[in-house]
Structure formats: C-alpha cells, structure tokens
C-alpha cells in the first residue's frame, strides 16, 4: 500500500496542524533522485544514533553507498529521519574516515600506518603478555578468582548485539572482568 | 534501571513508542524528547492530534515544552519532590485506581514492625552510620524470613538492573501469602506507609522545593488523574534527565509507583517509556558487556556470594517462584553455548575456571585504576570516553597511564589521541595506541535493540573501506589468534580459552564471521540437532540445549531471523508484532495481563488489549502471561516456578506477582523514594535533615574534588543536555560537515538576569568553573532558562550541551571536564544533570 506523494503531503500537513506551503517548488518535485537509476540496489538498515531505532534504506551501486533515507515501512519512523539520521550518508562517505590502522609507538609524536594483520598479531601478543603478568588465581583468603584485572573493555552501546556477545564471551574466557559500556544497570 | 526493575520485575521500558498514540495524556519529564529523540516524538504528536494532553516538566523550556499543552518548570534535581507531590495528591484526594491497586500491587501487604520511615531525619530504619549503608532487614514484609534463598543480581537484573546479591525476594511466593489487610487501613500496610511517607510532599512544599508554581502543579495533578482509570490512560516518558542523578533510581521509582497507583501499567496508552540514548544501549545490557552480569542478566560469579562451585552458584541464584526459578536452565545453556562439549552440567567442573568479581569493577573504578596504574591494556569499542563521560580529564589521564590501548572507531576520536591533548608532551606519554578503522552500520550485518526492547536487524549493503572491519571481525580474529597462542598450554589458567567454542562460519575475502550464526547461538538451539529453540521455556539444564542469552530466546524461532521481519506498518495493527522482534517472546507491552481486570475482562471497551476468552489469554499483543493459566488460578504452598504465580498476578517476574509500591528488598537507598538535594546543590534540603542521598557513592581523591552544598563560590546549577544535531561525545557527528555547520560551537544557555548581573551579552565568551576544571563557551542568553526563587533567593541554571572536544571538523571545550564522579548507589550512574558551578565573563 504505497502512499502517493500527494497523500503523503496532505498527511504531513495534517500532522503539523498548519497550512504551510509545500517546501519544494512544482518544478523541483519533478526531479528524480539517482536512486531510480539502473543497477541501484536497496538494503534495509537501522539508524546508528539514538535508541529510537529508525529504519533506513541504504541505496548502493557497485559497492558504493549513494544515498541513505528513512524507510517508509517502519512503524517507528514511517520514512522520517532527524537531522542526524539524515546525515548518516555524510558519515559513511566522510573523507575523515579511517581506512588504515594507525599506530602510535610509546613516546612518539606521530602516527604510523600498520598492515592490519600485523596489528592483529601485535595486539594478541600484548593480551597474552599482560594476562600472564597480572593473573590472579586466588585472593588473600584462598578464594578462587581465576582472572586478570589489568585489561579493560569499554564500549558496547553503539555496536551490535552479536558484537557485544563475542566480546563478553571471549574476554570472560580469558579471565577479564573489567568490562563496561555506556549503560548503567 | 532498577527503578523499573524493582517495581515491576524487569528493567526494560514497559511500553513502546507507537503505543504512546493510545495515551489520553503523556507526561514527559527528564527528557527533551522533541530534540533528543525527534522522530520518536512523532508518536506523542499523533496522540495530541487525537486529543491527548501533553505535559512537559523540565528545568529548561525546550522545543518539547513548546509542543506540549502544559509546561512546568522545575529546578534541576528536584524531580522526586515533584513526583512525590503527585503521589500525595493522588492518595489524599482518593484518585487512585482502587481495584487495580488492591489486586495488582503490594498495597495491602504488611511491613515488618521494625520498619521506621525516613522523616524527619531523612534516614530509614537500618541506617549504619559507621558503614554509611543500610541494613535492609527491617524493610521486609512481615513474616519474611531474615535469610532466604536469594535470586540476587540475576533477579535484580532481569530487571534489567542489578539489585543486590542476596537481597531479592526468593521467598516471596504467592502461594504462601504474607499478612495483609484488604481494607488498606492497617497502619503497617504498604498503602498507609506510602500515604504517611508522602504526606509532607504538599503542593506548597512542591512549589518551595521545585520552583514550579503551585497552580501549575495542581493543574498537572488534576490532568493526570482525569486521564487515568478504567477508560483512560496516562503514559510517562523519561530519559537521562531522570537517571543521571545521585538518586536517579529513586526518581524512576517515584514515577513507577505513581503509575501503579493510577492503574496505568500494562495497559495501552499507559506505562513508563524509558528513552535510551544509544542505538543499542538496551542491547548492551541485555547481551551485557558489563562487569557484573552475563548475557540475559545472569549474575557474574562473585567471591562475596556462595558461588564457589557450579552447584553453589546455581543453588544460590535459583528463585523459588516466578521465571527466575529456571535459572539452572538458563545458566547451563549459557555455558553450553560458550564451551560446548567441554562443559558438563552434571559436574560443572569447568565453572571452577570462570573468573570471579570481588567488588565494583565498573566504569568509574576502572578509570581510577587506569590512572593509578592497575590497568595496563584497554579495548574501546565505539565509546569516546575521553570526552563523553563525567570528569573526562580523569579519563584522559587514565588513558595516558596505560601501556596500550586499542580503539576501534571510524574516526580519529579523542580517546585515541589522549597522548597529544591537554598540552601534554607526547614524548612524556608511553601509551602504545592501535587505532583500528571500523565498519559503520550499513557495512555489516547485525542487530540493535532499541529503546522499547525491540531487536531490529540491519543488512550489510557494501564492504567497509580499505582495512576497516566490523567489531565482530576484530573480536573473532583476535579470539582465533589467542586460541592458537594457547593451543599447546597445559596451564590450568588457560582451560577456558582452550575450551571456548569459537567455530563460527566465515565468509567473503576477509573471513567475516557469519553474524546470523551468532544471533542463532544467542537465541538458543538444541545441542543434538542444532535446531533453534522456540523460546526460553524450552531450555534445559541437562546440556541438551545451548543458549547465549535466554531473554532473547525465540529470536530465531522456526529457523527464521525474527529480528529481520519487516512487514510494513500500514499492513498491520499499531502494535506491529511483525516488525522486528521484542524480548521477551515478542511482547510489546509488558505486564499486559494488567490490561484486564482480575477476572480477565478488559477494564473498559476503550482500553481493550489482552483478555481471557474462557480458554486462553488473547488480544492485540502476545500475552505477557502463561497463555492458558485462568484468572481464577491460585497456587498452593508447594507450587514452584511460574506455577507459584496466581492467575491475577500480572507482574510475573516478582515472586508475589505484584507491582511493588514499597520495595522490601533490592535497593540500597531505601524502600521508598525520598527527596534529597543533589550532591552539589546551592540550597538546603527543605524536607529532611539529610541533605543528599546518604548512600551516594563518592570518591574522595585529590583529583575528584566536590563543590560543597551551598558553597558561595559555586552558586549556579549546571544541567547538561543533548542537541538534535550532535550525538553524545560527537564521535559520530563532529566529523560530519553537515552537522558541524548546523551546530558549530559550544554554548552555555543562561537566563537574561544572570547575564545582566555578570555583564554578559549574547555570544560573549564566558568561563564556567567547578572544582574539577573550567571551560570556555559562548553565552546564549535566553528566556528559555527559568530563574527560580528559593526561599527568597534567586537560583540560576546554566544549560550546557556536552558534544564538543578538541578533534573533529568542529571543536570546543569538553563540558564533561566539569562533572564530578558522584554516583548513584544502586547502578553507579553519575550526576551530570545537576551540579554546581560559577560563571564569569570572558575567557579566564
């Protein structure tokens, strides 16, 4: 049941409770976004910002995102997005985005680049080393602890459930208990 | 928050955004919904179109206020006084929903003879001056044993909010009713205690404390009473304006109590909607990355509890009545999901190697441990805590004292650059930094759990750029490497990592783990066939099921990713049961059995939602109740588990099936809310001798000084807030030119009278200082900041959006450098919504 643009505008007007002019000129209304071009695909996503959970439509072609809009099917946002949600596209294509590992040596003034696999190996080695150096098998009263308090994990409210799950599963199995995120319960 | 968890049984929002459209009245307090959750605000606006009255109660006049029918200004930090006044109004004027209160709450239950209320000192019975904490024994129901099998953190938490270990109502059991008085007249029944407790919260006192004019308060009180009852419902909406206080849990408790008195919980257009701040902040507590709970609010093994062996752990945490009676099933299934054939629930030996907690290892103690050199390495997954948390300077100092930090982010956030901030010479800072480029949401598969417990799947559209990867990729491949490094170890300390089941299928050129297979594991499956289970009722304690997060059990029912359902809203009921999947078991309004009367009939035709049709519960939502348990069912004293919950007990997570007006166990700062001033306040507490929450957690360290109450050097109240155009620490917004252009610069919103006193004109620079630090901001002189008269004195408030930092395309000072680490006792949330500061013209 697609809503025709005319009806949609009537609906918006009724929601606003005012009789404002249509914000787009009649000529402008005839323009069609690139999302209608041949070869453009559409995926469904969720807005990364607040917890309202607006559904987004991600348009992409040849492995590149070309537009992100509100999903009209969602009972939560019914096609709308706020200024942040509308800027999701700007975040994805931002020239400031990182695409290489940045590494800063101790006492260095500079970033260096590292190959991803090298960085992963280095991190794994550091985890192993600090874990071995800081292991607590039991406390002063002989109670079993089986842990290391020297590694912390911070964050979780902006990443996926499945990612949080892997973090808690792996880190607890390594004996790490300083695990925390933005939530307080 | 345990505010909801202790009162109703689960910490999640009781209702959902769409259901606000069914409300006759919506009161938004502690939230600037129109600006901080703008799209969510369309639902109150639709309700208003349909005739609902909208009320905004807030220290600032905002766009939310502008769109509401009634705006009431209150001084930041005075919410309990306001809500206590409403509770008093409802009771004194006999406007409570008597049938609901009598049947669905603990109003009639008698409390121990030893209980003493908080007035006038402001301390309940059980206060231990030396330990600075309560012994809650005297708060218990009459006849409740002193020590009982506990349900502890788990129960506290399903709650969504960790309660205290042994302090939950294990022995509460509806089949063994406690002494009670159905006439509600006994002086020791909860109702009379409540009545006496809130009697001092008169309209006059509300005006004196909060600054809200008495007439405005009375107008609101009358409006919510008129819009509650059989035919009408009122909803409450809140956000961190309620939680970020040294008594945040009790603020929410106050609203939760009020909603029970008005009979608004579990019914369409009612309830308490918590607006969370991050895309999956609900998910990150459900599938917890927290120190004290495992997924599904399973409590972390703790040396302070009887958790020595698997058997001890399970026995300690298993409740006698309600859904926490099945703890053995949940916990064994979790262990099977993590360790597969290496975990045998018969002996549970592998559990001996599981790590234990021994105190508070949460965020703030961890920051201090970083600074003190006890933490060596740190992983950061999408949290910019060098800017985004209170006392951010302490966080940056902590980071600079680490041996190494691994930051996964899409941008060069401040948390990765502490070594070159604050004027530090990088050559003095030995922290090794790995800044790993991360994928954004549209570049990976996965699910978020949004504010109303709703899981929504997002599809991967494209590959992330260059070496950017998902956090799942990072954790999976880090785990794979570590398993290899430990493969040959025979050291007992490496037993768990060797046993870890880490065999997710991978795909694509980068060997991305298959995310649906992870969700399937969270939702649970049979270990023999691998088939997904239909829900947590199917979980077993004999090792035949594995389930990574029992409250999400059912999310893969029938082998279908239920979180990926996307039936358009136009083609289904407003409840939208086929859009995504809500825990538990796709129930959209919790405790919805309360939408029917004790006999199972709708309270009114207008508010029909879930009802008993003679054979089963049915209606517009999935019943939050056993489907075929008749309203007349009464448990016997020997019944266990859900069989111990009566047919008229809608609060199925509570041992007695009732909503808790009075919390006999589970909270550290009292069984009832009390108005205390914020830790830092320019005024005295007018209601009690006790100035602040006596159990608030303070850290007396040289690097965390506090402003004393009524300190003339810090006369103004600061309240921090969000803008529409930025997000928390700015990590996902200060790098986007569009948003930077819309909100380019930090400002301080101040009232014209304060500006005149300090000689400040609009857009002048001002310096705002606390004993932690100072910041510079442009003044935004605005009538939107109310000025309060407090016993003849003027109290000014300063509003500060906290999104800026030194990196990004728009930069500014870090507002969180001003905020103290002063924490709420139950959940350790900080007090950023009310603290004191001074303000001077210029950049001093």
From TrEMBL, chain A:
Family according to the record: Belongs to the prokaryotic molybdopterin-containing oxidoreductase family.
Keywords, in A-Z order: 4Fe-4S, Iron, Iron-sulfur, Metal-binding, Oxidoreductase
Originating species: Rubrobacter taiwanensis
Name used for this protein in its record: Dehydrogenase
Domain 4Fe-4S Mo/W bis-MGD-type: 40-96
SUPFAM superfamilies named among the record's database cross-references: Formate dehydrogenase/DMSO reductase, domains 1-3 (SSF53706)
GO CC aspect terms: cell envelope
Top-rank taxon, per record: Bacteria
Predominant place of localization: other
Keyword Oxidoreductase appears in the UniProt entry: yes
PROSITE patterns, per the entry: 4FE4S_MOW_BIS_MGD (PS51669)
GO molecular function ontology, one term from the record: 4 iron, 4 sulfur cluster binding
Species lineage: Bacteria, Bacillati, Actinomycetota, Rubrobacteria, Rubrobacterales
Matching Gene3D superfamilies: 3.40.50.740, ADC-like domains
Cell compartment(s), UniProt: Cell envelope
SMART domains: Molybdop_Fe4S4
One BP term from GO: anaerobic respiration
InterPro entries from the UniProt entry: Mopterin_OxRdtase_4Fe-4S_dom
Keyword Oxidoreductase appears in the UniProt entry: yes
Cofactor(s) needed for function: [4Fe-4S] cluster
PANTHER family cross-referenced by the UniProt entry: FORMATE DEHYDROGENASE-O MAJOR SUBUNIT, TUNGSTEN-CONTAINING FORMYLMETHANOFURAN DEHYDROGENASE 2 SUBUNIT B
Automatic annotation (TrEMBL), chain B:
Record's keyword annotation contains Iron: yes
Domain Molybdopterin oxidoreductase: 14-86, 218-479
Keyword check for Lipid biosynthesis: no
Record keywords, A-Z: 4Fe-4S, Iron, Iron-sulfur, Metal-binding, Oxidoreductase
SUPFAM superfamilies in UniProt: ADC-like, Formate dehydrogenase/DMSO reductase, domains 1-3
Needed co-factor(s): [4Fe-4S] cluster
GO MF term list: 4 iron, 4 sulfur cluster binding; electron transfer activity; molybdenum ion binding; molybdopterin cofactor binding; oxidoreductase activity
InterPro entries in the cross-refs: Asp_de-COase-like_dom_sf, MoPterin_dinucl-bd_dom, Mopterin_OxRdtase
Location relative to the cell: Cell envelope
Sequence ranges assigned to domain Molybdopterin dinucleotide-binding in this UniProt record: 718-833
Domain of life: Bacteria
GO cellular component, one term: cell envelope
Protein family membership: Belongs to the prokaryotic molybdopterin-containing oxidoreductase family.
Stated name of the protein: Formate dehydrogenase
Lineage of the species this protein comes from: Bacteria, Bacillati, Actinomycetota, Rubrobacteria, Rubrobacterales
């Amino acid at each position: 049941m697609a809503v025709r643009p005319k009806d949609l505008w009537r609906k918006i007007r009724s929601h606003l409770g005012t009789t404002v002019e249509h914000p787009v000129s009649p000529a402008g209304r005839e323009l069609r976004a690139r999302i209608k071009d041949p070869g453009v695909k559409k995926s469904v996503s969720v807005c990364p910002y607040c917890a309202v959970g607006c559904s987004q439509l991600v348009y992409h072609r040849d492995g590149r995102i070309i537009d992100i809009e509100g999903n009209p099917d969602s009972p939560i946002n019914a096609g709308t997005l706020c200024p942040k949600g509308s800027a999701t596209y700007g975040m994805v294509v931002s020239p400031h985005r990182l695409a290489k590992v940045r590494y800063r040596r101790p006492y260095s003034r500079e970033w260096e680049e590292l190959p991803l696999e090298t960085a992963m190996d280095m991190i794994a080695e550091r985890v192993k080393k600090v874990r071995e150096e800081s292991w607590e098998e039991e406390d002063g009263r002989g109670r079993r602890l089986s842990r290391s308090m020297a590694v912390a994990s911070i964050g979780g409210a902006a990443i996926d459930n499945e990612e949080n799950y892997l973090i808690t599963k792996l880190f607890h199995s390594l004996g790490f208990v300083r695990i925390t995120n933005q939530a307080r319960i | 928050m345990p505010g909801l968890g202790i009162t109703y049984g689960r910490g999640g929002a009781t209702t959902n955004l769409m259901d606000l459209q069914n409300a006759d009245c919506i009161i938004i307090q502690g939230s600037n919904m129109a600006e901080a959750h703008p799209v969510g605000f369309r639902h109150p606006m639709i309700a208003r179109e349909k005739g609902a009255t909208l009320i905004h109660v807030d220290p600032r006049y905002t766009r939310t206020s502008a769109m509401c029918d009634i705006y009431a200004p209150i001084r930041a930090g005075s919410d309990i006084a306001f809500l206590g006044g409403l509770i008093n109004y409802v009771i004194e004027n006999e406007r409570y929903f008597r049938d609901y209160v009598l049947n669905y709450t603990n109003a009639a239950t008698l409390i121990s003879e030893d209980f003493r209320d908080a007035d006038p000192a402001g301390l309940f019975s059980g206060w231990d001056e030396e330990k600075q904490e309560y012994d809650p024994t005297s708060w218990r129901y009459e006849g409740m044993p002193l020590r009982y099998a506990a349900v502890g953190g788990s129960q506290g938490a399903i709650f969504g909010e960790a309660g205290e270990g042994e302090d939950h109502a294990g022995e509460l059991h509806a089949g063994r009713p406690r002494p009670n008085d159905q006439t509600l007249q006994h002086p020791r029944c909860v109702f009379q205690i409540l009545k006496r407790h809130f009697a001092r919260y008169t309209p006059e006192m509300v005006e004196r404390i909060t600054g809200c004019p008495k007439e405005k308060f009375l107008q609101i009180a009358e409006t919510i009473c008129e819009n509650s009852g059989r035919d009408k419902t009122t909803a409450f909406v809140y956000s961190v304006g309620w939680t970020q206080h040294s008594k945040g849990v009790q603020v929410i408790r106050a609203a939760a109590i009020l909603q029970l008195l008005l009979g608004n919980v579990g019914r369409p257009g009612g309830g308490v909607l918590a607006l969370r701040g991050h895309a999956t902040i609900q998910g990150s507590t459900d599938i917890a990355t927290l120190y004290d709970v495992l997924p599904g609010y399973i409590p972390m093994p703790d040396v302070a509890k009887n958790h020595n062996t698997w058997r001890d752990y399970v026995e300690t945490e298993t409740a006698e009545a309600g859904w926490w009676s099945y703890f053995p099933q949940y916990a064994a299934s979790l262990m099977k999901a993590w360790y597969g054939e290496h975990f045998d629930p018969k002996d549970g030996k592998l559990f001996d190697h599981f790590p234990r907690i021994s105190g508070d290892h949460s965020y703030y103690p961890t920051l201090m441990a970083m600074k003190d050199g006890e933490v060596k390495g740190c992983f950061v997954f999408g949290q910019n805590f060098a800017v985004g948390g209170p006392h951010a300077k302490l966080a940056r100092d902590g980071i600079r004292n680490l041996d190494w930090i691994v930051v996964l982010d899409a941008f060069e956030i401040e948390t990765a650059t502490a070594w070159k901030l604050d004027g530090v010479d990088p050559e003095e800072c030995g922290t090794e930094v790995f800044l790993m480029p991360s994928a954004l949401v549209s570049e990976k598969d996965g699910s978020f759990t949004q504010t109303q417990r709703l899981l929504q799947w997002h599809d991967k559209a494209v590959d992330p750029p260059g070496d950017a990867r998902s956090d799942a990729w990072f954790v999976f491949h880090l785990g794979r490497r570590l398993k290899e490094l430990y493969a040959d170890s025979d050291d007992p300390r490496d037993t768990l990592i060797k046993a870890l089941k880490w065999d997710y299928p991978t795909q694509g050129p980068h060997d991305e783990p298959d995310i649906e297979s992870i969700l399937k594991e969270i939702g649970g499956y049979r270990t023999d066939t691998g088939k997904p289970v239909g829900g947590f009722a199917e979980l077993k304690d004999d090792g035949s099921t594995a389930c990574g997060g029992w409250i999400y059990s059912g999310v893969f029912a029938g082998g279908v990713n239920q979180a990926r359902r996307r039936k358009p809203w136009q083609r289904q009921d407003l409840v939208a049961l086929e859009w995504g999947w809500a825990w538990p078991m796709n129930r959209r309004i919790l405790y919805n059995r309360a939408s029917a009367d004790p006999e199972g009939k709708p309270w009114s035709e207008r508010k029909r939602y879930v009802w008993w049709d003679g054979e089963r519960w049915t209606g517009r939502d999935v019943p939050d109740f056993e489907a075929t348990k008749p309203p007349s069912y009464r448990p016997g004293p020997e019944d266990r588990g859900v069989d111990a919950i009566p047919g008229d007990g809608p609060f199925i997570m509570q041992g007695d099936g009732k909503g808790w007006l009075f919390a006999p166990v589970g909270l550290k700062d009292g069984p009832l809310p009390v108005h205390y001033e914020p830790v830092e306040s320019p005024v005295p507490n007018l209601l009690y001798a006790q100035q602040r929450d006596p159990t608030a957690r303070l850290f007396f360290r040289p690097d965390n000084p506090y402003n004393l109450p009524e300190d003339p050097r810090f006369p103004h109240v600061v309240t921090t807030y969000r803008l529409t155009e930025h997000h928390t620490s700015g990590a996902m917004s200060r790098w986007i030119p569009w948003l930077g252009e819309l909100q380019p610069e930090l400002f301080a919103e101040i009232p014209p009278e304060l500006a005149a006193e300090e000689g400040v004109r609009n857009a002048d620079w001002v310096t705002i200082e606390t004993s932690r630090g100072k910041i510079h901001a442009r003044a935004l002189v605005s009538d939107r900041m109310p000025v309060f008269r407090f016993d003849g004195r003027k109290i000014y408030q300063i509003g500060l959006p906290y999104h800026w930092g030194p990196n990004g395309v728009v930069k500014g000072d870090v507002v969180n450098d001003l905020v103290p680490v002063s924490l709420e006792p139950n959940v350790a949330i900080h007090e950023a919504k009310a603290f004191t500061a001074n303000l001077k013209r210029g950049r001093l």
